[in-house]
């Protein structure tokens, strides 16, 4: 057993009744979850106070992204089944998380990633945690095809979100949101890449609703990057490209799950430009105090785009007539899926470091006076 001074023992301990574990399951945890849900005052001001906005910051998970919620369940179950090696395809975060959890479990971990397309922080993590790194000349979609075929032949645990245990664990994000707010929000916005998370979150809301823990279901809003928006276009994208490398995915594995979440919730899946992603990335860091990775900023880029189009007002009026919502204005949660430290290169390129100064009081004074 792991000793800890904190009472929080991870998402399996907290949400056991909603997860596929038994007394026989060895729990592999890094005490993931219990992440902050923050009121976004600056964003609300930008929206002319027409909505109440919260940010669910998943960057405080042990490996810096939401993947840990699914990985604790997937690795625990793999260990229960007696597997000794795990594998995943990844745009970076899944590999960092898989490498860490396999390490704790005493399992080996192999990761298959698109060469040259993994943010430095994520690759450093996978390396540090001791994963076998297979960088391939291809896309994430190629990598996923390879691990799917390989795990059919060999007794290796597939740790991508096509593994249902991953989907189960990731539901805990919405359980935490509902527990904090006392009910489900009106709108739930998140970035979409391989579409495991939107599938999982919708499942989580439905299960909480059926269990009587919440009185309503939210409208689900998925956000893709314009250069990697197969779900918006309605067909796979052969050569996806975006600054948000985490969601640089052309043929999402959980395609049907994403469509189901969108349609059953009366929501939408939209695309935002890389420029809009960078604007949101800057705004979150400067004004909300949250340094997230570009893919996570897509949530907020989507929020701003839809707000400008009057989407929330329109949709909220419809919700009010349908379900007697008592709130004055819509309650919106944006999920910020990963930490900004994952991708220091994009930060340095986007925000540009000024030239070094001579080591004098005068030079520093002049630099400060420029912003006063
Ligand atoms: C920060 O790590 O697919 O739609 O291989 O890292 O469930 O795929 C990461 C995805 C959003 C999209 N935000 O979630 C991987 C990988 C961040 C991410 C997504 C990812 P899905």
Explain what this protein looks like in three dimensions.
It is a single chain. The chain is of the alpha/beta class and 372 residues long. It has 16 helices and ten strands. The protein has helices at residues 11-15, 41-46, 67-80, 93-105, 120-128, 140-153, 164-170, 172-181, 196-210, 230-233, 255-265, 274-287, 294-308, 311-323, 344-351, 361-369, and strands at 37-39, 52-57, 85-89, 108-114, 132-136, 157-158, 187-191, 219-225, 268-272, 331-336. Strands 1-2-10-7-8-9 form a six-stranded mixed beta sheet, sandwiched between helices. It has a four-stranded parallel beta sheet with strand order 5-4-3-6, with helices on both faces. Strand 4 (108-114), helix 5 and strand 5 form a beta-alpha-beta unit. Helix 4 (93-105) runs parallel beside helix 5. The protein starts with 10 loop residues before the first helix and ends with a helix. The model has no long low-confidence stretch (mean pLDDT 96). The structure holds ligand AN7.
């Amino acid at each position: 057993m792991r000793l800890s001074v904190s009472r929080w023992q991870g998402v399996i301990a907290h949400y056991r009744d909603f997860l596929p574990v038994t007394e026989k399951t060895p729990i592999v945890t890094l005490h993931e979850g219990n992440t902050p849900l923050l009121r976004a005052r600056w964003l609300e001001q930008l929206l002319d106070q027409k909505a109440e906005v919260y940010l669910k910051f998943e960057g405080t998970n042990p490996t810096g992204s939401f993947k840990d919620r699914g990985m604790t369940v997937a690795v625990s179950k793999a260990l229960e089944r007696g597997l000794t090696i795990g594998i995943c395809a990844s745009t970076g975060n899944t590999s960092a998380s898989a490498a860490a959890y396999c390490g704790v479990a005493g399992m080996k971990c192999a990761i298959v990633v698109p060469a040259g397309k993994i943010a430095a922080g994520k690759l450093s993590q996978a390396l540090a945690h001791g994963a076998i790194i297979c960088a391939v000349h291809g896309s994430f979609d190629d990598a996923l095809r390879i691990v799917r075929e390989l795990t059919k032949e060999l007794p290796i645990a597939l740790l991508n979100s096509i593994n249902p245990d991953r989907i189960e664990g990731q539901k805990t994000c919405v359980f935490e949101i509902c527990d904090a707010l006392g009910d489900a929000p009106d709108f739930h916005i998140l970035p979409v890449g391989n579409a495991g998370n939107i599938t999982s979150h919708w499942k989580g809301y439905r299960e909480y609703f059926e269990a009587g823990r919440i009185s309503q279901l939210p409208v689900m809003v998925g956000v893709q990057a314009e250069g990697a928006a197969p779900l918006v276009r309605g067909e796979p994208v052969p050569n996806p490209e975006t600054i948000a490398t985490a969601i640089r995915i052309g043929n999402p594995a959980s395609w049907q799950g994403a469509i189901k979440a969108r349609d059953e919730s009366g929501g939408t899946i939209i695309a935002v430009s890389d420029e809009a992603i960078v604007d949101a990335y800057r705004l979150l860091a400067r004004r909300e105090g949250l340094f997230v990775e570009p893919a996570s900023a897509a949530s907020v880029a989507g929020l701003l785009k839809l707000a400008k189009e009057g989407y929330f007002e329109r949709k909220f009026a419809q919700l009010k007539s349908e379900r007697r919502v008592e709130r004055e204005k819509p309650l919106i949660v944006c999920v910020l899926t990963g930490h900004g430290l994952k991708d220091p290169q994009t930060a340095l390129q986007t925000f540009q470091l000024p030239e070094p100064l001579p080591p004098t009081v005068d030079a520093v004074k002049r630099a400060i006076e420029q912003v006063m």
